[in-house]
């Protein structure tokens, strides 16, 4: 018999916990859910759009009755649990239900705070918390009532006021403080917000203290301490919420400001867990959905008795859900005596941006009027990225700092049409993304990727997709967790896996999976190549490359084309070749009837249309002419592009061609987290385009400028200047050290541009420039690893028969089809 799990609370936190549990242990429990409302689980975030008439109740339903039935969950709708007997492990509802449990999940949420003034119990005085409140507001507005008073000028109060205004009521917002949203905005942004809302027709009474709600049986007005009275047919109190822990307290669980839980979401009773707005974790309570979903994932992990996940708190952000008004805030935006502020303000355009920095790391942010970069700033804040290198331009957004196509100021999400393309790689338009979010009940960028493929390729549209999530869901869309696991096979992050491989000297993929308790015995297409890479990068002398864990191009050492043939790109050292090499390439192209021979952008020659079974023979003949693999398919060094430099060019200051050849001779064959490209320009005219390479070298009169982190693909990023060195030996040392630090620290499939954006240029400079001994050690490790990497894979397969089965014709299969002549089909591996 299965153990019994009872969830008290049918809201977003509790049901999200069950959803996470069903993903990892669907048959673990017999599940019962109690909810005090007569509905399934709905998206409380979207009550504001329902009030404004932009959505319906059905639109915001997350889990209907069919979902509970499909997962064999017993749902008690409209049942309020009134007591818990922990000794007998039973719960009792006011409606007479008695249910036993083996594990109990408390997700009772929060209760709206109602000001204890005379008249607060009158008909027409409500909170703004659930569907019933929304129905009351809509019924009042549709009945022709004119005057509404919203007490509370915070986030929820303003959204309620905006909705009532859209329903035709005259709305007055009353706020105790002298600025609106005082917990989310500073005075400058609050003033801008008030002006915008007043233009829409809202009225405001600031620094106003409510004394009494007027009326006999129904509300008729509100009186304030200064004697002012305003008429009211409806009073909405939105003055805050309190964790609802009364039930837990009565059951004897330890409570302070909420139900106290540990990092596993377990209460002081090991059989009882709690999640959501009702809990207190590390002295903090949370009222936004994003941290609640993080709690849900951790709680599910422990209910499933996997026991490896921890909740360590959340950084939260706020966004106002009022159509046409863009407001965002996060972190400590007021600052302290240890912080400094960077501010951009354009009153005529209604734009205000403020970043609070401490030791060049973002501690808080306020954006008004232009929130396109809110996700980027929030990510920088959560990751504690050093922004020293981008301080001068950081307020102009990600587009001006990183060349991100998702951040054009002219492409405001609100004004984009549904057929506007969002993801160019996969041809996904805005309407497709919005439809998936609404219909599939999506909350995270990962879920959008899974359902639409938007932002799943190059990633340059990620910020735009996140903005669509924010615009569609509002304030509480679930941010991408900072500690994201490598894949669904494990809860461990890239960094945790790398650390385990180093610290515990793991030298095989099997050892990694066993030590880190992988959920699947053999891994998946995401984790297998990643683990294989991390092993090679950290233990090159001991690890045997598992080529079966590589993608097809790396497995057969050639790039597969759309017709099933392959391309062959021999290495051309620094872009310099000889007549003999050219003749060998021409002879191979003729002999094997290779249809296309093309000069690449990396100064090499590409033979396109090679049959798979011909690859070893083609490689063998190229080897005889001294040509080896160009690794054009590899997550590794691709090419070193050069200009002719001082040998031929009248502007050249150094021998860029010679330097490029030396770099390529040193680095070829190296495996890296993603493809790695280099270039050497002979003068600042930069003909080799060194400023958009992973490692670029530009010759100057006194030596060489070294550049890092460039990218010339879909998401163009200009390099950061690392330093200037004097000798060619210095160039080699700094290049090798940079590659090794990147190899050891970056995540698999993370380009240098993204890695530097994540860790910050100051971190790279600290490792390469400030730590001289560390740089030399990294360089030495790189050279040591090259002893095992610089083996030509073409020669192994052409002359040594390595992995011959990959290229053999397996067999001829006679095929007979009735009324057709017999035929022969060749199967090729």
* Count of extended strands: 40
Shape: elongated
| Helix share bin | 25-40%
Radius of gyration: 32 Å
What's the helix count? Answer: 25
What is the CATH third-level topology name of one domain? FAD/NAD(P)-binding domain
Structural class: alpha/beta
- Give the biggest beta sheet: 5 strands, parallel
Q: Which runs of at least 5 residues are low in confidence (pLDDT < 50)?
A: 403-411, 819-829
Query: What strand order characterises the main sheet?
Result: 5-2-1-9-21
As an assembly, this protein is single chain
Task: Return the CATH architecture of one domain.
Answer: 3-Layer(bba) Sandwich
- At the first level of CATH, the class of one domain is Alpha Beta
Written overview of the protein:
The chain has 829 residues and is an alpha/beta fold. Among the domains are: 4-109 and 243-303, FAD/NAD(P)-binding domain (3-Layer(bba) Sandwich), CATH 3.50.50.60; 125-239, FAD/NAD(P)-binding domain; 404-482, BFD-like [2Fe-2S]-binding domain (Arc Repressor Mutant, subunit A), CATH 1.10.10; 494-550, no CATH class; 637-789, Sulfite Reductase Hemoprotein, domain 1 (2-Layer Sandwich). Helices cover 31% and strands 22% of the residues. The protein is built from 25 helices and 40 strands. Strands 5-2-1-9-21 form a five-stranded parallel β-sheet. The chain has a five-stranded parallel β-sheet with strand order 11-18-12-13-14, with helices on one face. Strands 23-24-27-26-25 form a five-stranded antiparallel β-sheet. β23 and β24 (327-331) form a beta hairpin. α14 packs across α16 (527-538) and α19 (615-624) crosses α25. The longest helix is centred in the C-terminal third of the chain and has 18 residues, at 728-745. It is elongated. The two termini are 49 Å apart. Residues 403-411 and 819-829 have low confidence and may be disordered.
